[in-house]
Amino acid sequence: MNHSTAHNNYNSNNSNNNWRLPNIAFMVGGFMLFAPVGFAILAWLVIGKNVDILGTVKSKFINSSPAFKQQFKSKRHYGHTGNSAFDEYKHDSIARLEEEMQRRKAQLKDEENNFNEFVTNLQKSKDQAEFNQFMKAQTAAANAAEKAQKTSEEETV
Q: pTM of the predicted model, to two decimals?
């Protein structure tokens, strides 16, 4: 084996393919989120052998439990059990519960509107009572001032 063949074998075995776009993106994202995370990813890329972060994440997701995958599925996708009678019962029950929920939301909205109207009327009544009290006080003060003026006029005459 000549020198160039040995050198090529060394380069092919020890080449660091870690500096791929997904790995760099994860490193930059790590620095943006929290600097120690970025440094940890940087160390992993520099020291680690053949690091493929994107592949690792994909394989973890693929091998994850069905319950974990179900979280990412559509909210309205309820799955099928294989038993058509149960699936139909489940679908009908969910539809009935959603209808009940919509009815209760409408009822709560009506109650909220009624309460807001009650609070508005209560505030108006309170404002009116305060205004009436103010007017009585003003009238009493005006009457007292008028009476005092008449008394002072009578004393001067």
A: 0.39
